[in-house]
């Protein structure tokens, strides 16, 4: 998955629309499939916060559940306006948008059933930043969180590591997307007060993309 990074590393990123190539259509189909599975594993939550919502690409999937209330937050009001403008009316009327950062969500404690975060964590290379977001998620959700990121232990991660290792000394390699060690991120989930319900891989053993379903420990 080659999402374009529009902000600096370590910040929320708004994801632009992708060209409608066959490969991209297949990738989008698999993304939507993983999201549906994750929502099912989370118990089909009724009140979901999509953060950062970016272009709203997952809103149609979230809206497939007829009784679901959907909140969508993004740091950029322009991004939210663009997402609403390109979303079908029957979906758009199901979405309540507001400006907010994943690091400091403008909602009270235990405000939603589930936080849905598909396009942030692979931009966070710093464990402290990931921990800060997870702590905020733990505060705001009353039950579950769905988090996607790049993990190691697969062919694509191995290739990426090898390619970065082959760069000539002194070569600048922009780092706005990061692969995280699975044991590290899973320890971070636990430290923030979550237990892992399960995970789904984009292509098991090959692709880096993994979607975790988390539940507050003790819930």
Provide structural commentary.
With 219 residues, this protein is of the alpha/beta class. The chain has one domain (22-216): Vaccinia Virus protein VP39 (Rossmann fold), CATH 3.40.50.150. It is built from 7 helices and 8 strands; from the N terminus they run αβαβααββαβαβαββ. The protein has helices at residues 22-41, 59-62, 77-85, 89-92, 127-140, 155-165, 182-191; strands at residues 47-50, 69-74, 95-99, 112-117, 141-151, 179-180, 194-201, 209-216. Strands 1, 2, 3, 4, 5, 6, 7 and 8 form an 8-stranded mixed beta sheet that branches. Helix 5 links the parallel strand 4 and strand 5 (141-151). Helix 5 (127-140) crosses helix 7 (182-191). The longest helix is centred in the N-terminal third of the chain and has 20 residues, at 22-41. The radius of gyration is 17 Å and the shape is globular. It starts with 21 loop residues before the first helix and ends with a strand. Mean pLDDT is 88; it is low at 1-18.
How much of the sequence lies in strands comes to 15-25%
Succession of helices and strands: HEHEHHEEHEHEHEE
Through-space gap between termini: 33 Å
User: What class would the helix/strand composition place it in?
Assistant: alpha/beta
**What is the helix fraction of residues, given as a range?**
25-40%
Q: Could you name the CATH class?
A: Alpha Beta
**Rg measurement, Å:** 17 Å
Count of individual domains? 1
Largest sheet: 8 strands, mixed
Poorly predicted segments: 1-18
Number of strands: 8
Number of discrete helical segments:
7
- The CATH homologous superfamily name equals Vaccinia Virus protein VP39
Q: And the CATH topology?
A: Rossmann fold
- Taking all residues together, what is the mean pLDDT? 88
* Overall morphology: globular
What CATH architecture would you give? Answer: 3-Layer(aba) Sandwich
């Amino acid at each position: 998955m080659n999402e374009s990074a529009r902000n600096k590393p370590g910040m929320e990123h708004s994801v632009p629309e992708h060209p409608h190539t066959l490969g991209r259509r297949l990738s989008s189909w698999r993304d939507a499939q993983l999201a549906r599975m994750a929502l099912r594993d989370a118990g089909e939550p009724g009140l979901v916060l999509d953060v950062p919502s970016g272009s709203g690409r997952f809103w149609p999937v979230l809206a497939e559940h007829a009784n679901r209330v959907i909140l969508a937050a993004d740091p950029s009001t322009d991004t939210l306006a663009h997402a609403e403008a390109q979303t079908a009316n029957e979906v758009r009327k199901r979405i309540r948008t507001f400006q907010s950062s994943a690091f400091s969500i403008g909602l009270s404690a235990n405000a939603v059933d589930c936080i849905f975060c598909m396009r942030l964590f692979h931009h966070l290379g710093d464990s402290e930043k990931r921990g800060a977001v997870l702590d905020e998620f733990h505060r705001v959700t009353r039950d579950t969180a769905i988090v996607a990121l790049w993990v190691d232990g697969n062919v694509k991660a191995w290739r990426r590591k090898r390619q970065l290792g082959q760069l000539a000394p002194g070569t600048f390699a922009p780092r706005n997307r990061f692969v995280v060690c699975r044991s590290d991120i899973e320890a971070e989930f636990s430290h923030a007060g979550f237990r892992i319900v399960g995970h789904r891989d984009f292509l098991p053993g090959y692709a880096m993309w993994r979607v975790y379903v988390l539940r507050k420990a003790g819930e």
